[in-house]
Structure formats: structure tokens, C-alpha cells
Amino acid sequence: MRHAPAGPIAVLSPHLDDAVLSTWSVLQRGDEVRVVNVCTAIPEPGPPPLWDRLTGARDRAERMRERLEEDRLALREAGCQAIQLGFLDDQYRAAPLDEQELMRAIEGAVPEASELWAPAGIGAHRDHVQVRDAALVLAERGGLTLRLYAELPYAARHGWPATLARRRTRQALAIEDWWAAFLPAAVDRSPTIQPLSRREARRKARALALYRTQLPGLGMDAERLRYELSFAVANAAPAALAAPPASAP
């Protein structure tokens, strides 16, 4: 993946709702945005794993087909389409994603981009962490500007910091420390905070409502929808430095 000023903004979404949940403000910029959904393969039919059972599924393959359609409709509300990479979701496989195969698939989907957005790994979900780590390598290799987005609902699991929360509590939690515990060393711990206008928050809520099988389990409410956060990455090398050295004559 190479840096190209005129290229699209690439948003890596480990699962079929992460882009809309956590990067709505990016999807709405008006620039060309290419959403790359990573875990989109339909598993073999069979009993649903825990998350699917929690959200009322009867069969794992049927549930994944439902989720793919939900995501298509939600992204249409955002004016975007997604590229599906076809990896199995963590809940349907025993082993981690193959790192090299994952990076090749991302590069094949978006050979060049003006910016790269990837999950920060807050909450330590294995798929999110692997996609983040692949993005760190690709950004350094291709000289890309990389931002890591704070995943909802994990980033707001304990609420927003006191500086953002509408309601003051008797004891403010150290939310920034919760975020920092999951971030790699190269990441600036001070997030960029993007408040959504009331209009955009309503539009985002309408799009999220289309994830009808997932939304009840996510615990999202109006307060958690008000902000989106991202972190700058300091180690993305200039394109000239990221290129492999020429072979000796």
C-alpha cells in the first residue's frame, strides 16, 4: 500500500459494524472513502457461538448472511460501499489470522491511499489487534498517514472522561488510562476528539439501527454516540525511507 495524495481514504473495519460505529465522521467527509471489511467469510452452518447466541442467532452461517446485508444497508446510509476480504471472524475460527496473508489482502484491496484508518485495539479483541498491527506495518512501509480510531463500544465502556461527559459523577474515572493501556508505544496518547453535531448523531443512529441483530448487544446510547476519537501514529516513515533498498549491481 502506497501513499497517494489523490487516493482514497482507507478505513479498515475488522467486523461488519466497526466503520459505522467508530468512524462515521470520516465516512461523512465528502472525500472518497474505501471501507475494507476484514472478517466477512460465511462459516459452515452449525450451532452459533456465544456472541451469536447472545444476539439470538439460530445458525452461524445464517447470522453472517444477515450481518452482511445489514452492513450493506448501513454503509449505503453513509454513502459508502465496502470491500470484503473474506476472513473468518474470530468467533468462528481457532487460530489467529495469518499476518502476511492479511497484509497482502489489505494491499490488494487498496493499493494506494491518501490516509489509512485502523482500529486502536481498545478492548484487546484479537481481530482488532491483528488489523491494527498490520496497519502499523503497512503505513510505515508505504509512508502513509495512519490514524487509529477508538473503537466503540469498547472505548466508552466506562463512559467518557469528565471533560466530555454531560453529567458529572462523584468519582471521575481515569478513562484516558483505560485507552492508553491498549495503545502501542508509537501512538500519541492524546486523542483527537470529534464531536458529532445533533444532526450527524441522529444520522449515525439511523445507520446503526440497521444492524438490527447486533445493536441490542452493543449497549450504545445517545451519550456514547456523541464523540469519535482517534490517535496519531508517530512512526509512519516517508515513502522514500519505507521503500526496500535497491539491489547491489
Net shape: globular
- In DSSP terms, counting alpha (H) and pi (I) runs of 4 or more, how many helices? 10
User: What is the alpha-carbon Rg in Å?
Assistant: 18 Å
The largest pleated sheet is described as:
7 strands, mixed
- Mean pLDDT score: 90
- Secondary-structure-based class equals alpha/beta
CATH architecture: 3-Layer(aba) Sandwich
Give me the CATH fold name.
Rossmann fold
The percent range for strand residues is 15-25%
Helix fraction? 25-40%
Helix and strand pattern: EEHHEHHEHEEHEHEHHEH
CATH homologous superfamily annotation: LmbE-like
Uncertain runs with pLDDT below 50, 5 residues or more? 237-249
Going across the major beta sheet, what is the strand order?
4-3-2-6-7-9-8
- Top CATH class: Alpha Beta
Distance between the termini: 27 Å
DSSP E strands, number: 9
Number of domains: 1
Can you walk me through this structure?
This protein is an alpha/beta fold and 249 residues long. Strands 4-3-2-6-7-9-8 form a seven-stranded mixed beta sheet. It has a two-stranded parallel ribbon with strand order 1-5. The protein has ten helices and nine strands. The longest helix has 19 residues, at 60-78. Helix 4 (60-78) runs antiparallel to helix 8 (198-209) and helix 5 crosses helix 6. It is globular. The chain has one domain (2-233): LmbE-like (Rossmann fold, 3-Layer(aba) Sandwich), CATH 3.40.50. Strand 6 (115-119), helix 6 and strand 7 form a beta-alpha-beta unit.
